[in-house]
Amino acid sequence: MSSNQFDVVVIGAGPGGYIAAIRAAQLGMSVACIDAWQNGNGGPAPGGTCTNVGCIPSKALLQSSEHFEQANHHFAEHGIEVKGVSLKLDKMVGRKNDVVKQNNDGILYLFKKNKVTFFHGKGAFAGQVDGGWAIKVSGTTTADLVGKHVVIATGSSARELPGTPFDEQQILSNDGALNIGAVPKKLGVIGAGVIGLEMGSVWRRLGAEVTVLEAMPEFLAAVDTQVAKEAHKIFTKQGLSIHMGVKLGEIKSTAKQVTVPYTDAAGAAQKLVVDKLIVSIGRVPYTGGLNPDSVGLKLDERGFVVVDGDCKTNLPNVWAVGDVVRGPMLAHKAEEEGVAVAERIGGQHGHVNFNTIPWVIYTSPEISWVGQTEQQLKASGRAYKAGSFPFLANGRARALGDTTGFVKILADAATDEVLGVHIIGPMASELIAEAVTIMEFRGAAEDIARICHAHPTLSESMKEAALAVDKRALNF
Questions:
Q1: Is the entire prediction scored with pTM above 0.85?
Q2: Residues linked to residue 301 through DSSP beta bridges, in sequence order
Q3: Are residues 14 and 121 in the same domain?
Q4: Is 123 a known ligand-binding residue?
Q5: Which Pfam families is this protein grouped with (predicted)?
Q6: Do 154 and 38 have their domain in common?
Q7: Structural domain ending residue among the three candidates 264, 281, 298
Q8: Does the pLDDT at position 300 exceed 60?
Q9: What is the maximal distance between C-alpha atoms in the chain?
């Protein structure tokens, strides 16, 4: 095999791509991974949207802004008197950038450790050849590669409002929302989904007056209704102004402000004038420069690469994973698919269970869930039992000073199998892992109830909710 020939060529080094590359290398294959993302100095920045302008930097800013909020409004409750708290936004954003770079460098180290050959540039199909598929790398690095197998992991990009392109100065995607130079006095957010609520929360905590406009009539329609109602109440109390069922007019932007005319849910004409506008109305698959037509790679009407249940495309030995294919646009879903594809290429049986993929919204309180909601179970006619437990009755939550929210468990009425778990409250993102594990093994609420949980911990709320399914909670 020549130096430009590989068993596997992975296009894209986001969560799906870099993980697929590493797992394939672990299985003894020769692997190349191509990624074009650059840092501020023009160097490679693998990790995709998640590491560079998504999961990682947003969590860094959420953490920093939460500290700021705690110092301003909650330290006094703990007997800590703080005076003259001030914000150095450039340092906060700088820390966020440092966290991103640490993750970029970590991936490059992992490539080196696992003997994955990295190419810094864009990868494109150049045809089918003896030995597999010709892939052309252009950009910082130029190369002509041949891959026996190709894994497409090119991810997604933010969806623009028609007629309102991102300029990342006034009209912001998630990228621009992470790099605002000064706290805006008034901030508008289009879209009350995960990104909109997280970014809105960051800038509200830092002092912005935040208004969220959402076209859907229901708040967080994909979330369990009971959780969504609690979340709406809490976010509104915190200061987010949330308007549902709106219809947008023509947005106009100048160097100093953005004007958003809209019709509210009652049909009345309204106008929102803000300093900055974040648009978070979903994401679209990214296949720019991939040159799919040259090899007949099939895309669907929305631009996703068409795959089967094993992530195989219509082309032999060409696979696709992550945001560029069907299913939830979640980093951990992409990782699971990346591992599964590498293992399938290696002759093993990869595993991805779409029914046990957890979801998280990193607001305060956090929201997490896995499995079916109560409204989905009602719609399907499945008989179920429900049990919930409030953090108000949890000793650790009281000690933390954060007793907002609850844990809710839904189980089959006859078999007690856990069908869904929904959490709003402190550290919900961590607590959901126990639910995922139980559901992956098709466990029962009784299984959670019989497991000894350390005291005092937030996880005891999971045990108590499981006991509540059988109407025998001990602490509520």
A1: yes
A2: none
A3: yes
A4: yes
A5: Pyr_redox_2, Pyr_redox_dim
A6: yes
A7: 281
A8: yes
A9: 72
Residue-wise pLDDT tens digits, 28-49: 999 999 999 999 999 999 999 9
pLDDT score of 86 more than 90: yes
Which pLDDT score, from 0 to 100, does residue 3 have?
72
Quote the domain boundaries for residue 114: 5-158+284-352
Q: Which of 73, 74, 351, 455 is catalytic?
A: 455
* Nearest partner of 205 among 183, 220, 188, 233, judged by Cα: 183
401 has binding-site annotation: no
Instruction: Find out whether 422 and 373 touch, Cβ atoms under 8 Å.
Output: yes
Looking at residue 187, which CATH number applies to its domain?
Answer: 3.50.50.60
CA dist., res. 291 & res. 301, Å (int): 17
163 has binding-site annotation:
no
30 found inside a domain: yes
Domain count, the chain: 3
Would you say 199 is a known binding-site residue? no
Residue 452: give its domain's CATH number.
3.30.390.30
Question: What is the per-residue pLDDT across 244-269, written as a single tens digit (0 to 9) for each?
Answer: 999 999 999 999 999 999 999 999 99
Residue 243: active-site member:
no
Is 191 flagged in the annotation as binding?
yes
Tokens of 69: 């909020």
> Which of 334, 352, 370 delimits the end of a domain?
352
